[in-house]
Amino acid sequence: MAGAVSIRGLAKEFGTRRVLDGLDLEIAPGEFVALLGRSGCGKSTLLRILAGLDAEVEGAFSVPDKVSMAFQQPRLLPWRRVWRNISLGLHGVDGRAVAEKALAEVRLESHADAWPLTLSGGEAQRVSLARALVREPELLLLDEPFGALDALTRSAMHRLVEQLWREHRPSVLFVTHDVDEALLLADRVVVLEAGRIVAEHRVDLPRPRRRASFVDLRVEVLADLGVDDVEAA
Amino acid sequence: MSISTAGVVARPETVATSRAPAEKQSGKQRRNRSGRPRGRPDVARWLSPVGLVLLWQAASSAGVLPPDKLASPLTVFVSGYELVLDGSLVDAFLVSSSRVAVGFVLGTLVGGALGLASGLSRWGERLLDPPVQMLRTLPHLGLIPLFILWFGIGEEPKLALVAAGVAFPLYLNLHAGIRQADPALLEAARVLGFSRFERIAHVVLPSAVPQTLVGLRIALGTAWLSLIVGEQINADAGIGFLINNAREFLRTDVVVVGLAVYALLGLTTDALVRGLERRVLRWRAR
Ligand SMILES: Nc1ncnc2c1ncn2[C@@H]1O[C@H](COP(=O)(O)OP(=O)(O)O)[C@@H](O)[C@H]1O
Ligand SMILES: [Mg+2]
What we know:
Chain A contains eight helices and nine strands. Chain A is an alpha/beta fold.
């Protein structure tokens, strides 16, 4: 099915270190899944594998044809103007028009001709998001894309991502270490630990969500992450 | 002459590949060390150079500095003016400039082609880089005897010397620049579906530009140095000829004029590269 992800027994070693170890995960078409886990547990490794950046793995997985990814750092080409950053790599389309439409979606239409280094962190990250979306992915991989942003910009970005996801309906695998962020956005939250998915929670709450609506769920997820709620609060 | 800058790979100012804190930088860059706004000349910096020239003139006038050792600034100035008027300085200037220009183009073609080949292809690097790295430890000015044996004492050894002086720094910096391409950007390009050509055109080569421009500036400096040395070989025209000729007649004024022209030419080409740099690197945060 278009957009579906299926991972079976995925394992990845760096030297002797087994970072992923028999990982199973299914993502339904159009489903928004948040992947939580401690720093260094292998979240980025999993995303890189799904994006086709690392082929030396054991196990099996299938991803849709069109996969796109936004990284923690925007990774824009500083020597190409913003609109070129979005349209480069697209073939057989009017790059400028496509880029302008995508920039309008992330509310940066006035920055089409700017140099990336003149953007703020939040703006650069929005360009990175537009660049990922313009490829009309069936699977969108987001690797802590808001990790470096301030709280206000972050919540604006949450609303933006949710809105864009509703309009384009890609399957999303969203890596974060922020439980609130995961519960605000995801249909399902999964926890990665010791190389496999050790817990998962369905988040059946109406959108847009408010933090007050998932207080109990938050405690459960934090417990899965091995965090005592008292210190987290 | 024991100077060789052929082996130099200088570091360009740090290139920000993702997002640099533009706000933080701009405040700092606008002022220099003495705290003046950029662009306004610092008169105090001219005190000692002007003072030295005055001292020089005083020493000449007082007879402490005999004209057959070093002519007075005034004499140098007047001689320079006369040489311009009778056309000999212009002729010499044109001959020397065209030597540098031809040698520079040759060296750029060779150094550029080799740098691209070894930067962009694994086999190119395996085959080309070891010999070039070995040769660069050799000061290229030391090649003069061989060049004379190979090319005689006409124009060719002078051009070859300039070309060799240009090719090495350009090769080294272009090669290093290409190798420095940010793996994070290359990875992003792969995820975004760039073709190999697009990766090279939009990621690899642009990220090599700052380092290559550094190489270009070093290459131009070396080109002038090579010219000066090359023009000592049996020159019958050019600034080197002008200087050597003047030496035989103890005309230290003309020697100094020739040296001043060399210096001016060097400064001019350096300014040209700086201008190119500003234009090509305008994407850097302001
Ligand atoms: N290319 C690599 N070579 C060796 N070790 C790596 C490599 N990439 C990641 N690792 C290791 O794998 C583990 C998981 O890394 P990563 O997937 O980046 O974690 P995170 O969950 O924080 O994204 C870390 O211990 C990291 O040091
Ligand atoms: Mg990570």
